[in-house]
Design brief:
Layout: E1 3-7, H1 18-32, E2 36-40, E3 53-57, H2 62-75, E4 80-84, H3 90-100, H4 102-111, H5 115-129, H6 133-139, H7 145-155, E5 158-161, H8 164-174, E6 181-183, E7 202-207, H9 216-223, E8 230-233, H10 241-252, E9 257-261, H11 265-272, E10 275-280, H12 289-296, E11 300-304, H13 309-312, E12 317-319, H14 324-336, H15 338-341, H16 351-362
Parallel strand pairs: 1-2, 1-3, 3-4, 4-5, 5-6, 7-8, 7-10, 8-9, 10-11, 11-12
Helix pairs in contact: 1-16, 2-7, 3-4, 5-6, 9-10, 9-14
Length: about 375
Amino acid sequence: MKKIAFLMRYNYLEVGGGDVQQVTSYIPYFRSKGYECELVKDLDSSNVLNFDIFIIVNIDRPIETLNYFNFLRNSVPDKKVFIIPIHHPIDAVSRFEKQEKGLVFSLLCTIFPDFYTREKFKNFVRGIRYKKLIPLAFKHVFVNYRLATKKILQSVDGVIYISNGERVSVESDFDCTPKNYCIAYNAVDTDFSKKIEIDRKFDVVVVGRIEPRKNQLNVVNALASIPVAAIIIGPTSESNKQYNINFMNAVDRSSNIQYLGAMDHLDVLSYLTNSKVLLNASYFEVNPLVDLEAALCGCGVVTTKFSYSKESLPNVIEIDPWLNNSIMEGIVKALQFPEKTICDMKINSSWDSSAQKIMELISK
């Protein structure tokens, strides 16, 4: 029986996210085809020989991407290696870091306008908590991350994109065209059916970890300005304590908004089926799972224009997360014409069909 290692970011156990949900959703299909799968964050000589196929997840974390790839090529050069990029547009990330991550990051962006140069600085910051990263941070000081990532994309046995827009972005940002690739769209579980109800309790639902990137503080300010009943769901982030305080204070000042905290996935789905519109005003995404799940639950979807949701959900209303007026206008439009914003999925995809495309790629 062959065994697949999904090579994850070092903090995936402490900080969950769409990447973890995405990867774990592939696993049942792989197992049904006789493959064992494991999520791995510590790859070394003690366990590398346990696996037959390696899939590196998230090229926007170059310290880990390079470490994994170089180790594999030196240790098991004959084994297959693939990449799931989960790549965000660099311009959108840089704008966020400059304008929304505080004075230190703004100054850092001024001194080091290149995204990958800033990543080297962040490596040392991450190393404060994760000591194993410190030697790698020093080792990578003079590495050209953009060029190194390009070489990896050209050298791996295949690239697994989650949207065509992501493929275009990767090819543009790294000036390369990987020969072997597949597009395995993010999907949704189909064991709950779409419920289109005329009388839903909540006008707007917002789902996501409470953090600057997800933009909930501006969302609260926008929603407080229009007559809607809104709920916000998601865990707070330990690394953004001041943002959490500001967010809670803003919610307390808003009589039409409830913060429900973190909850299980099935409970989130229950609230989606009882809400008219999902609002996703994140500063950048790739192919966000919450948009797809909301659509399947019968919600209209108002989402950031800095994502590729429109590939799967052509009827989404796109908004500019930097402009509160854009957020408000998107919500008002969705509530005025709900029958036009209920989003049927254009890409008829299940997790099994997406995993099947990956299986076809890795079996070549």
